[in-house]
Amino acid sequence: MTDPEVCALIDLDEIRDALLFMHRLTKADAEYVFYHDETNNIKKLRLGVRGFNVTELGVFVLGGIVHDSAPRRLDIESLRNAMRIQRSADELKLKHVAKGDFLDLLTSDKLTAFLRWISDNGLFVHYHALDPLFWSFVDIMDSILYRLGEPRLMAFHIQLKADLTALLRANLPETTRLLYRYQYPNLAPEDRKPFLNELISILEQTHDVLPEFNSKMLKGMLQAGHDLPSLDFIEECTPHLLIQSFTHFYLNRIALFKYSSHILDMEDSIRDDLESMTLVSGGQPVKNFRFADSRSEPGIQVSDIVVGLIGKMYSYFAGTTHDKVSAARASLIGTSLKNAELIRDLIDASHEANIAFLHHVTSNNEIDKMNVFLRLRGSAYE
């Protein structure tokens, strides 16, 4: 989606009320201590004549660890000892646990020790995971559905967005050329029908990405957009700018859990953005967050490993077919299987503690792959 214009005065209660209503969240009034770090923050996402402005487009994750009540001491030395971290390392990072992609991380005995330490110390994980491609493409379908205004179609909106993302991801070079040519997300009125027709052409030329029924449904929706008076969310926006910044995801977490304390890693661009705003709640300045140096905050060091792991996990699901994910899960043995089960247990426990701890903006297809691999509680693969 395109980013809202940043205003000097931000009422966090307006953000919070919208999130509570949209997701029907409860328990957001409880008091927690959140430690935050991030991974895959590309600052901005733009389209250029040669494609995106970044070569590797991983899933952005803002998250870390959380516990209830007041701040407390985290026994980071016991974690260092459990993972056999050398004294020369002045702070913990994901690289001290394992290197490589998600499947490589699962082979690490140090990851086993890390995941057990989190559970043994009464901690939960929290995260907001955002697939930049899904976020950038979803406005196409939202624009059509919004203008059609047909309630019966809303039953299919999640799968339609997932299918459109899968189609465009499978044809990414052609997709980026198409979007650049039409000044996306700033379509001109005369370009609505040609743009949708080119998407339909990609769909008709692509096989084995979508089931036949899904393909027909998606084609029908794109055709339905031909005669709409506007495609609201992909018109009158900044040409070629898909993501302005990730600051508002920080705002969402701070606003949602406004009665909690938030300790954030020192990210200069995020700090500068937040300091340029006047954040208020109930008419009073917001003081529930602070930035800190990770070397002096063990909770941020632990959060670095958490978001690194979660980021690689979501990026793996986004970039891997369902069949390959299923085959990888079936082949897990030993340490890899144990770590997959520990990740599952930690996510399940965190979800049970507070459903608002975990949030993802990604395709429903990727969520299904995660359920296939982790076999989360309540999924069809449990």
Instruction: From the alpha carbons, calculate the radius of gyration and give it in angstroms.
Output: 22 Å
How much helicity do the residues have? 40-55%
Distance between the termini: 32 Å
| Average of pLDDT | 93
Describe the sheet with the most strands: 6 strands, mixed
Q: Tell me the β content.
A: 5-15%
Secondary-structure element sequence?
A: EHEEEEHHHEHHHHHEHEHEEEHHHEH
Q: What's the arrangement of strands in the largest beta sheet?
A: 11-8-2-5-6-12
Contiguous helical run count: 15
Q: Which segments are poorly predicted (pLDDT under 50) over 5 or more consecutive residues?
A: 1-6
Task: Tell me the total number of β-strands.
Answer: 12
Query: What overall form do the CA principal axes indicate?
Result: globular
What is the number of domains?
2
Structural class from helices and strands? alpha/beta
Which keywords apply here?
globular, single chain, alpha/beta, 15 helices, 12 strands, 382 residues
Please give a structural write-up:
48% of the residues lie in helices and 14% in strands. The protein has helices at residues 12-23, 76-83, 102-105, 109-120, 132-148, 157-170, 172-181, 192-205, 212-224, 247-256, 268-275, 298-318, 322-330, 334-353, 364-374; strands at 9-11, 32-39, 45-48, 51-52, 60-68, 124-130, 241-243, 261-265, 278-281, 284-285, 289-292, 358-361. It has 2 domains: 9-132 and 245-374, no CATH class; 133-241, no CATH class. With 382 residues, the protein is of the alpha/beta class.
